[in-house]
Amino acid sequence: MNDPLPSTRPILLIEDNPADLDLTLRAFKRRHLLNPIQVARDGQEALDLLPGWEAGEPLPLVVLLDLNLPKVSGLEVLRQFKACKAACGMPVVVLTTSDEDRDIKTAYELGANSYIMKPVDFDSFASVAAQIELYWCVLNKPVHSLS
């Protein structure tokens, strides 16, 4: 199967807070991001995507993962994403309000590619969105399927 173009692969945003979700979507809209944004509003909704990826659906270009999620925690979502053969190489950026050393250490131990503290104001968040877009959507070279 041919990999879709990076600009057509979605960015998966796993976020339960409506205000943070709106802030993120507005920041990406301001950047005129080409990638579609796929949203999971809790940990279980995110994990429900795994069977599709295992069946060959295109993976997101990058996952933006909040840690404080209902139903299934963000750290458990990260653990299961990285344990899934189909999704284990998918970049996961933890984007959260937690600055607990334990959360940071655990996230990296579970395979997070980056850990970013959520900015609280829109302009700062727009700056973070621009950096995420530049690195993960433009500069980073993802692994391509060999099948």
UniProtKB/TrEMBL annotation:
The modification 4-aspartylphosphate is found at residue 66. Keywords: Phosphoprotein. GO terms for biological process: phosphorelay signal transduction system. Residues 10-133 form the Response regulatory domain. SUPFAM superfamilies: CheY-like (SSF52172). It comes from the Bacteria. Coiled coil: none annotated. InterPro entries: CheY-like_superfamily, Sig_transdc_resp-reg_receiver, TCS_response_regulator. This is Two-component system response regulator. It comes from Parazoarcus communis.
